[in-house]
Amino acid sequence: MMSNKFKHTSTALLVSVSLLLSGCANTGSSMLSGTKPDPRLTSGEQSQLFSSSAAQGCGVGALAGAGMGALAGALAGNSKQALAGAAIGGAAGCAAGVAANYYLDSLKKDYATTADRLQAMDTDIKKDTADVAKTTEAMKAVISDNQATLTQISIKKDQAGFDKANAKKDLAKIDANISTMQNKIKVMKDKSEAYKVALQGQSATSTTDKARLKQLNNEYSNLNNQIAVLESETNGLYSQRQAISLG
After folding, report:
1. How many angstroms separate the most distant Cα atoms in the chain?
2. 101, 198 contact by CB (below 8 A)
3. Where are the domains of the chain?
4. Contact 181/142 with Cβ under 8 angstroms?
5. C-alpha triplet 136, 104, 102: angle, nearest 5°
6. Which residues 6+ apart lie within 8 Å of 61 measured at CB?
7. Of 159, 167, 169, 143, nearest to 235 (Cα)?
8. pLDDT over 70 percentage in the chain
9. Secretion signal: which residues (predicted)?
10. How much is the pTM?
């Protein structure tokens, strides 16, 4: 009897974790009636840059949390409780996984010395800084075009002959762009936070390591400033869009 309950629990666990991982990976995604964002934000190289959240940390946390929740329900001899436990535990684990020190933990696992960890961080931060610069170029071009479109809509919306239907399509595209940009910025900020935690977790003792850590903190500060500027410009577009209502 107990064996059958554990079989049911295993099925419930797999289903729950699959759903939870899907939900974690798509957190913050937009469903805008099928309207696609500007291809400058999603095509080519941009399709690979900051296109998903910290799904790795989420996945590990969700799997652990769901497993614990399901096990508790199974031991209680209640398959419904096992399913509910998996869902609740997985949701909590997902949140914990994203917020956890997943980058720092991976550094400690992959590199035995502080010097090696600092070198790895240097490579990662420089790559993300370059990627942020590329994404910034694409996003600024889209923001500029969208601001011009919003200005024209704002000027013409109360004039005779205004094409309201076409304007609504333009607004839907801008909404899709804003959502995509906000999601990219969220991934950038998640990475930035991971770097912050990892930098704070380093214990440099040698003169060389101390100098490298200081350099990395400067690089991190530069990366963070770039993200802040990009977020500010995106927020500016969002505010301009929110000021327009076509009824």
Report:
1. 75
2. yes
3. 1-100, 101-247
4. yes
5. 80
6. 93, 94, 95, 96, 97, 98, 100
7. 143
8. 67
9. 1-27
10. 0.70
Degrees to nearest 5, angle at CA 182 with 178 and 183: 120
In tens, the pLDDT along 77-134 reads 554 454 444 445 554 555 444 444 789 999 999 999 999 999 999 999 999 999 999 9
pLDDT per residue over 141-154, tens digit each? 999 999 999 999 99
**Count of beta carbons in the 10 Å neighbourhood of residue 14:** 13
Measured CA to CA, the distance from residue 50 to residue 192 in angstroms comes to 12
Contact 3, 76 (CB under 8 A): no
**How far is 224 from 196, CA to CA, in rounded Å?**
10
The answer to whether 114 touches 198, Cβ cutoff 8 Å, is: no
**DSSP code of 37?**
P
How far apart are the C-alpha atoms of 187 and 182, rounded to whole Å? Answer: 9
Under DSSP, the state recorded for 38 is P
pLDDT, one tens digit per residue, over 176-190 is: 999 999 999 999 999
Using alpha carbons, list the distances in angstroms from residue 11 to 17, 45, 76, 89, 179. 10, 38, 17, 16, 35
Q: For residue 15, how far is the Cα from the chain centroid?
A: 23
**Could you tell me the two tokens for 105?**
């933990």
96, 119, 154 from 212: Cα distances, Å: 30, 8, 51
DSSP string, 17-52: HHHHHHHHHTTT----TTPPPPHHHHSGGGGTSS-S
Count of C-beta atoms within a 10 Å radius of residue 36 = 13
Amino acid, single-letter form, for residue 88: I
